[in-house]
Amino acid sequence: MGLWSKLTGKDKEHGDSSHDDKKKEDYSHLSSENKGKSSKAEQEYRPVYRPPGESSSAPPGYDAPPPGPPPPDNFYAPPSQLPPSFGLAGGSSHAPGYQDYAPPMGPPPGYVVYNVQIPPPAVPSRSKKYSQGLNASEDDAEAGHQYCRQNPVARPAYFPPETLDRISRGEIGLYMPGHFGGHLTPEGNRRFEIRSHKDTEDATLLSGLPLYSSLGHYPRDKAYKTIYYEIKIHKLHDDSSLAIGYTVVPTPPMRLPGWHRGGLAVHSDDGNRYINDPYGGKEFTRPFEEGETIGLGIRFRMGMAQAFLTRNGREAGHWMIDEPRDWEDTQRLNGDGNVTGLMGDNDLYAAIGVFGKVEFDVDFGYNEWQDSTIQH
């Protein structure tokens, strides 16, 4: 009698009395409701492991674990040597029927090779101990360090929308320190004319509002923000100096920008760039000349910041502000090249340094360079 007959009860219909008194078998464990469950009968016939010597109804070999210890971990050891025809260099001519082939002499047909070598990581350039141009005294440097120790950097300020609009138009003003030996003449809301005397000591002229507001200008909408302004040099004597830069506030008014914390600048007498560096700076460009228009900007994008310099409308060079620093520079007591405040984490003001007799104009108006982004 088949299973189908048992399930349908056809045995009773055909008068098979030999099975009338038998108990119906339970197949409920085969239903979808009991899926994954074991019937009582299945549980009774599962193999049961017992210690050796104890009787059981299980078939021989199922009532005890296999004799002996388990096989060792290194049961399948790797070959002791390379297979035939494989040498240490990736091939061998000893195998019959095989021949070594040299690598192809050129690219596959239809491919062009661009011999572009990836340069090794740049070696950090070390600041000069002294500038090849004019150098301030150590006493003046210490006075600047003392000023910074006594006057901590101001936190980013909140500027209302109308003030941010003024900044975007370049209406930020320009102020000279009290000891400045010269004259400042406004020429509209964005341009200023500066004339200094030959005995003018180091001084930094500072914008009244920042060109970059950390709270208002941090790149969000268009993923980048660029600040930029220019100076037009009319007269620049050999024993004079002019610096174009940016700085956090407050900054030592009796020093040039780039020499102290949160300051960045390029100096006219040596063409070097300075970031928190009261020594000789790093070589960057040639000295400025009379008649030139010099522009300095910073491009901010997604946590990066790149400074760039223009000469007469053309970019003359750029560098990443957080470039690797030379280890010896980082160990200096003052002016270790730290870039805190220059990476978009603080407000940045225009800072123009003057020493000796110079004549120049400053223009904070809109310039197409403000639409540029980081260059590689």
TrEMBL record:
InterPro entries for the chain: B30.2/SPRY_sf, SPRY_dom, SPRY_Ssh4-like, Ubq-SigPath_Reg
Biased segments, Basic and acidic residues type: 8-47
SPRY domain residues: 224-368
Region feature (Disordered): 1-99
Localisation: Membrane
Pro residues bias (residue ranges): 62-73
Primary subcellular site in the record, as a coarse category: membrane
SMART domains: SPRY
Keyword field: Membrane, Transmembrane, Transmembrane helix
One GO cellular component term noted in the UniProt record for this chain: membrane
Protein name: SPRY domain-containing protein
Organism, as annotated: Arthrobotrys musiformis
